Amino acid sequence: MEILTYKKFGNGKKNIIFLHELMGDSSNYEACINYFDKEIFSCFMVDLRGYGNSKSILGKYNLEESISDIINLASFLQLKKYILVAHSMSTMIAQHIASKDVRVNKLILITPISYLGLKSTTKAKENLLLQMKKNSGKIEEIVEQSSQRYNNSWKKYRINLAYNCSLLEARVSYMNMYLNINFNLNNDNKLKIDIPIKIITGKYDFPVFSKSEVSKCFEIFNDVEIIECQEAGHYPMIECPIFFASKIEFWSI
Question: Among 44, 48, 145, 156, which residue carries the largest CB count within 10 Å?
Fold first, then answer.
């Protein structure tokens, strides 16, 4: 059994597992991690297969594998209870984990997507996957569109990280994961999550991640709280690290 790599911060009794997005890795949380109380929390910042320090752990890079990897990691760490924090792409994975692992006692989702992936047309999905497979230009376009308020140093940092933090096969496969699960919030197989779900969106994020759109995707769950970070786009943990850590702490204590 492969165990994903992780970085641990703190030695507290409250355990938090952090999952990253498509175009970053666990280093996305480095800007905020020092603002967590290390005597209260034990924070585990995880790299998914094909990402960061888990680049050498090869696999299928799909939903079922990712769910199993995180549940196995929690068992390896001997966690009796844990809070699961996930960002963007991995929020889909996290919702499925929460429906299966009774040890998850709270779900905190950052700029999330539905557990059924992203809604889009077949043509748009195929075009996006094709451009990502070419590994040239699409990442720059996404960063440029999401970084209108920021300088070129930020844009270069995000572009370099997106290309270098993961294997191309992993990026494309995880994108395929959330683009090609049948998106239908009216189906009869709604995911059952009986724990509190806390959500942070960013005021300057893409429209699909806006508070209003996210609210529609999560209205099927009973215990949901959504707040909008007023000074962030898609990366509240980097753009507003003190706010981010403070909110996570408040929700976790």
Answer: 48
Residue with tokens 């960063």: 143
Dihedral over Cα of 93, 97, 99, 105: its sign:
negative
Per-residue pLDDT, averaged over 25-50, amounts to: 98
Which of the four pLDDT bands, split at 50, 70 and 90, describes residue 136? confident
Any idea what the Cα angle at residue 88 is, between residues 215 and 54, rounded to 5°?
Answer: 155
**Residue 137: helix, strand or coil by DSSP?**
coil
pTM of the predicted model as reported, rounded to 2 decimal places? 0.96
CA distances, 130 to each of 20, 127, 164 (Å): 23, 5, 19
User: Rg of the chain over CA atoms, in angstroms?
Assistant: 17
Mean pLDDT to the nearest integer, 190-206: 96
Q: Are 158 and 147 in contact (CB under 8 A)?
A: yes
CATH number at 6-252: 3.40.50.1820
In the predicted model, is pLDDT for residue 26 greater than 90?
yes
Q: Which residue has the tokens 């994020």?
A: 205
Q: How confident is residue 182, by pLDDT bands cut at 50, 70 and 90?
A: low
Phi, psi of 106 (to 5 degrees): -160, 145
Domain ranges in the chain? 6-252
